[in-house]
Amino acid sequence: MTMEQSTGVIRYRWVVFLLAAFYFTYGFIGTDHNFVGWQYRYLTNWAMTLSTISAFLMLQRSLGRRDQRHEVLASATMVINFMVVLLYWKIYLSDPTQFYVDGVRTSPAWQEYYLHLLGPVLQWIDALFILGTFRHIKKTIGLAVSITLIYVVWIEGIVSPFNASPIGSVTTGLPYRFLNNLELADRGMFYIQNIAVAVIMALVFSALSRVLRKLNLAPK
Q: Which residues, 6+ apart, have CB-to-CB distance to 213 below 8 Å?
């Protein structure tokens, strides 16, 4: 029996999957369906979907129903989750009003803290210490960057043109209000900077994974 099939890991992965499945499902219920794109206007929910898929696949491995490691998906999910956490807390700490409308949170606090802290941390623990990830760094970077680029095309080409709010000084409809105050060139620079952060963090996580394997804290 491998570590992934131990009782403790199976229980852990059940908890991770059930939490992810709940918040994934709630995303469809709690979103404002008047907006084109629903909850997928936000990168957070792209990460949530990736986390749910990854959690399901990891649970299937522990239950002996799947042999494939799906390491690249788990690694890329870890990177996307890091981007979501970094962006959320950077925006929240600099201007909390971005997440309020008329003094009311756009999402309940218990959902925000799971999506932008607890959920990603649970996924990182599995990816780093149980599965053992980032052995295929080029594929991981390729997938993470591709997902990010698709998201950028999605919000710029579909979400923004078909939504009348949020309203900014430059454009309308982009999900994050501050983006609507930026010219296209400035938004492009913002996207490029975040893609660069994703690449850098993938390399950092890859180095961390190697250290953990050398210390026998992660599967070799």
A: 132, 219, 220
Q: Is 56 exposed, middle or buried (0-12, 13-18, 19+ CB in 10 A)?
A: middle
Q: What is the CA radius of gyration of the chain?
A: 18
Question: DSSP 3-state assignment of 55?
Answer: helix
pLDDT at position 117 is: 97
ω before 108 within 30° of 0 (cis)? no
**Token pair for residue 218?**
């992660």
Question: Would you give the end-to-end CA distance of the chain in angstroms?
Answer: 16
Is 220 domain-assigned?
Answer: no
Write down the residue that tokens 């925006």 correspond to. 91
H or E stretch including 153? helix 137-154
Judge whether 163 and 52 are in contact, CB under 8 Å.
no
Number of structural domains in the chain: 1
**pLDDT tens across 125-160, in order?**
999 999 999 999 999 999 999 999 999 999 999 999
Range of the domain at 83: 3-214
* Residue 184 is assigned to a structural domain of this protein: yes
